Each structure stands twice: as C-alpha cells, then as structure tokens.
Amino acid sequence: MKEKKKLTTPLSEACIRSLKAGDEVLINGVIYTARDQAHKRLCTLIDKGGKLPFEIEGAVIYFVGPTPARPGRVIGAAGPTTSSRMDGFSTKLIAKGLRGMIGKGYRGPEVIEAMKEYGAAHFASIGGAGALLSKCIVKSEIVAYEDLGTEAIRRLEVVDLPVTVAYDAAGGSVYSTDS
C-alpha cells in the first residue's frame, strides 16, 4: 500500500510539481472554501485591481458549501461540489498563485493548461462523504461574502483532509489512460 503524502499549506510550486496524478494526499493547515458566486466575486476583484480577502499565493480552495454545524461541531457536512462549475474562474485564480483546488469531477482544458503553466493541482475528494470529511475540519470562520450564506468564503483549518491528486501540474489525470 502506497504511503499518503502529507502536505501543509500554503503550498509551494515545487511541492505541487512533485505530485503525480493518483497520489493520495493528506492536507493540513488552512484552506479556503469558495463556490460559484464567491469565485465570480474574486475574479471581479482581480479585474478591478482590488485586494483579495485572503492570500491567494500558495492557497488551496475547497469547492464546498457546508451545511450548518450541529451543536458541538465547528461545521456541518462538507462534501465537494462539481469542479467544472468553477472552470470559468479558476484560470484567473491560478495565474494569481492559487496552488490547489479540491472538488469532484473533471476540469476543462483551459484549467489544465493553467495548472501546467503556473504549477497548480486539482485534488479530488469523495462526494457523498461530507459528514466524514467535516471531521477533518477543526476550525471554521467566514472571511468574506457572508451574504452568500453557505457559499461565503470560509477559512478552514484542516487536519489530515484526505484527497487524491486528480490532475497534476504536468497534465496527468486520474481520469485518463494517457497519463
């Protein structure tokens, strides 16, 4: 059985470029949540030359809209959203230094090319396992766009969040037999 690689955020380009499609990874440190509307707002800020609400260089964004936390928990179920929904925004964020994205499913060719050019990776997480994944989240706080409710950007502290490298920075993919 292959040993899981432990990564601590923020992630460097060298760290990302060392990963290969299929590698099993445990992410530790701070990651951010963002879905469609938050991505749109982040890209609008970039277009206007504004300051992003968190440091994007080396960051990981988890495509998730968690459910409300039950008593005694920091967050509710936190399962991944379909990644391709963020494709129209991801290239701009990758160009600004985003190193990792966590979601489920395929990424488009433009995103794959941006990952190769700038040194980013896409991690897959298991859909339907939101309650299990939430146990890896030890702290959660909203940092931007509270009006978006579950789609607000949150700063999460995670311990051993299990993901698989779905697309690596060389263009390899777990979804293709060509890699």
Could you name the ranges where pLDDT drops below 50 across 5 or more consecutive residues? none
**Could you say what the CATH topology is called?**
fumarase
N- to C-terminal distance = 21 Å
Structural class by sheet pairing and helices:
alpha/beta
Question: Overall mean pLDDT score?
Answer: 94
Largest sheet: 5 strands, mixed, barrel
Q: Given the C-alpha coordinates, what overall shape results?
A: globular
The percentage helix is: 10-25%
Strand content: 25-35%
Q: What is the CATH class? A: Alpha Beta
Order of helices and strands: EHEHEHEHEHEE
Please, how many domains? 1
Describe the 3D structure:
The protein is an alpha/beta fold. The chain has five helices and seven strands. The chain has a five-stranded mixed beta barrel with strand order 2-3-4-5-7. Strand 3, helix 3 and strand 4 (about 100-105) form a beta-alpha-beta unit. Helix 2 (about 35-45) crosses helix 3 (about 85-95) and helix 3 (about 85-95) runs parallel beside helix 4. The model has no long low-confidence stretch (mean pLDDT about 95).
Quick structural overview:
The protein is an alpha/beta fold and 179 residues long. Helices cover 23% and strands 27% of the residues.
